[in-house]
Protein: 4-chlorobenzoate--CoA ligase
Amino acid sequence: MLDLGTSFLASVERDPDAMAIAEGDQTITYADWYRRISALVDGLGQIGLRKGDTLVTAMQNRWENASLHWACQIAGIVITPVNWRVTADELDHALHDSAARVLVHDDAASEAVAGSALVPNLKVLPLGGDQGLAAMLSGSAADAAPQAGADDLSVMLYTSGTTSKPKGVPRRHRAERAAAIAHVAQNMYGHGERTLGVMPLYHTMGIRSLLSASVIGGAFVCLPRFDVPGALAAIEQHRVSNLYLVPTLYHDIVHHAAFTPDRVASVRKLGFAGASMTDGLLQKLAEAFQPELFVNHYGSSEIYTFSICQDAAAKPGSAGRAAINQRLRVVPLGATDASQTCAPGEEGEIVASMQGDEAFEGYWNRPEADRKAIRDGWYFTGDCGLFDEDGDLFVTGRADDMIITGGENVSPVEVESCLSLHPAVAEVAVVGLPDVRWGKVVTAFVKRGGDVTEDDLDAHCRSSDLSNFRRPRRYVFVREIPKSPVGKLLRRLLVAGEYEVEPAETTTA
Structure:
């Protein structure tokens, strides 16, 4: 298999004059981008970086960041991107754990860089300045030759640690390229398509968008920081043809006052991942975009694609079937191996084959995490789910999120999807809160989109197909539903009481 540097060079040779990347009014062709990336490869070499070294980045989705990702692939440098909202302690963990030699950052991460205990011992490359990243990209050098092989490490992502320090997920060139090729096939991208590059380049979704765009001679339209007016302007200006976003960003787009279907008329394909999408949002997106393809993509940083459903609106909640590089099973909760599987309709833990072309091989310096997650050639995802009678997978949530109330298991995703169909519910999150009698009581946190009361929502649930024991027994109306920087719902903050209740004067009796 090709390494990623050679893969990029092949794209340059196929489509030298095609638009490869854009940001605002700036557009760059493949040939011009390769020239700039070659200058950057040379610049990285001049500051002492060599094949196999690790470089940490803390940057927004600007074109210089995307250029750095490709330069590292060509030079054989292991790029380790972290959230640009990183704290000083989080940054130091990544720098120490990855044995980084260089840190590259923009102004968004300046506070963390200033507070870091390890930065003074590293080579630091800012975005601006005479010796910065932008200056390197404006230089000149001979065309860069790919230095990595398919078996070399390409990137190391850090998982979002909720109960422990984030874990490094090292991924090889061959796994990254296999994932990009599969992404093109499963999303049916055509030659020259353009994607909105707003999912962060420290997240697997952002990297996949970047790599898959190059495979098809397409364009990565950078949006450094998400905001709906900026996203709509970029889609219109650059005729973006596909979107690959988390549900939260879709929600924000279609509910914004500036949104009209005409403004996104160029978009023909939708894909989402990172979290479940409620039935209400699925319906609204299908009506607003009328896409040719609507893909639910279920995966992780460790094994990029688990399953794909290419008609998400037709079977709400379905994650489809195993992806083209994967095999999946559902095993009983608490199972120690993957040999015993659940019957159709029986909920258990989803496990994925480690033989897949997109799989990682284990966590970075975390043997205890490997022992917990990898067993007999299968990756235990920590997600709960089931196969229905048709053989389609349904992801019901994280094992840790499952609500056990009165001895019954309740999936918060199912309850959220039911409540999302009420026209006055803008957003909803469901968790289990401690209760003396029931152990946990199903509690719905609701951001209103109109006048609605607890009684209204209870009546809505009673008139639905939701089982009686799954109905919320408590409702809390909040200003906002807490989410991570990439739009993932943070249930743990609701459980911990870290939310702002909607003022009493705005509630209805």
